[in-house]
């Protein structure tokens, strides 16, 4: 039997990768010493990124910048363990063109890094979000059934699950990000055996947010949302050692979240 090791996975919606780099916060996330770093909303073509972002010593980087429009959406995954394969599509063109997924397949498990759509800007975009939710869940269920690999997925889900997951639930009951139909999808995810790792380890923790509105300086008052998640299959939970929210790292309207798993 091969010896196990503890893998640290970090997820962060950077809201513009070049902006985080210019502000000097790029180095901060690396101080967390991630084994896998998942970034969402990079808002950049890879060709436009400086080498200090594209090439990190000891890591291989995989970018999905999308093709729908320049400087929009996009995800990146850095890993110090070479994956067997990497996927950038979930199998439906209207979702895949926006560059929202990068999935790294390792020997016995996979990590899928996802920037889920925002449901704002009207009913059409909300429906797009809900359709993406369903398409992504179908995608990972197919992988699970075909390969038997353990699944971890993470990213900006763009929905707070329960009232404990946002500062002002009553005021947001009719706003996207806390609509019943959005929250019902997370219920479905959990019913299929995926666990919200942070809430599993911190069931009663209040005020635990990783997103704040910049325009209202909500971070100063911790009027936030927990919309950044790690989900892991139930069978992996015996190997999960910790889950954290890194509110001391700035540079975006989100902060990083992380988990540590014995692999």
Question: How does the SSE layout of this entry go?
Answer:
Elements lengths: L5 E8 L3 H7 L2 H5 L5 E5 L10 H4 L5 E5 L10 E5 L5 E3 L5 H4 L4 E5 L3 E7 L7 H25 L2 E7 L23 H12 L2 E3 H5 L9 E2 L5 H4 L2 E2 L2 E6 L6 E6 L11 E6 L1
Parallel strand pairs: 1-2, 7-8
Antiparallel strand pairs: 1-14, 2-4, 3-4, 5-6, 6-7, 8-12, 9-12, 10-11, 13-14
Class inferred from helices and paired strands: alpha+beta
Average pLDDT level: 96
Full CATH superfamily name: Endonuclease/exonuclease/phosphatase
Q: Which word captures the global form?
A: globular
Series of secondary-structure elements, N-terminal to C-terminal: EHHEHEEEHEEHEHEHEHEEEE
Number of strands: 14
Protein described:
The strands form three sheets. Strands 3-4-2-1-14-13 form a six-stranded mixed sheet. Strands 5-6-7-8-12-9 form a six-stranded mixed sheet. Strands 10-11 form a two-stranded antiparallel ribbon. The protein has 263 residues and is an alpha+beta fold. The protein is built from eight helices and 14 strands. Strand 6 and strand 7 form a beta hairpin. The chain has one domain: Endonuclease/exonuclease/phosphatase (Deoxyribonuclease I, Chain A), CATH 3.60.10.10. Helix 5 runs parallel beside helix 6. The chain is globular.
Write a brief structural summary.
The protein has helices at 17-23, 26-30, 51-54, 93-96, 123-147, 180-191, 197-201, 218-221; strands at 6-13, 36-40, 60-64, 75-79, 85-87, 101-105, 109-115, 150-156, 194-196, 211-212, 224-225, 228-233, 240-245, 257-262.
């Amino acid at each position: 039997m091969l010896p196990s090791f503890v893998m640290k996975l970090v997820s962060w919606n950077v809201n513009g990768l070049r902006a985080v780099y210019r502000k000097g916060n790029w180095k901060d996330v690396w101080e967390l010493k991630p084994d896998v770093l998942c970034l969402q909303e990079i808002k950049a073509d890879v060709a436009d990124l400086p080498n200090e972002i594209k090439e990190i010593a000891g890591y291989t980087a995989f970018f999905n910048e999308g093709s729908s429009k320049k400087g929009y959406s996009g995800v990146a995954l850095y890993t110090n363990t070479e994956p067997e394969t990497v996927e950038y599509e979930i199998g439906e063109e209207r979702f895949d063109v926006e560059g929202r997924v990068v999935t790294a397949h390792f020997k016995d498990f996979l990590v899928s890094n996802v920037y889920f759509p925002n449901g704002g800007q009207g009913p059409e975009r909300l429906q797009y979000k809900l359709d993406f939710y369903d398409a992504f869940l179908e995608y990972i269920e197919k992988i699970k059934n075909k390969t038997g690999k353990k699944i971890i997925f993470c990213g900006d889900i763009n929905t707070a699950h329960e009232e404990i997951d946002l500062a002002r639930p009553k005021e947001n009951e009719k706003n996207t990000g806390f609509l019943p139909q959005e929250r019902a999808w997370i219920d479905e995810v959990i019913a299929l055996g995926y666990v919200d790792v942070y809430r599993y380890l911190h069931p009663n923790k209040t005020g635990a947010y990783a997103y704040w509105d910049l325009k209202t300086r909500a971070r100063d008052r911790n009027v936030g949302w927990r919309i950044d998640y790690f989900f892991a299959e139930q069978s992996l939970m015996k190997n999960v050692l910790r889950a954290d929210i890194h509110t001391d790292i700035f540079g975006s309207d989100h902060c990083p979240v992380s988990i540590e798993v014995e692999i």
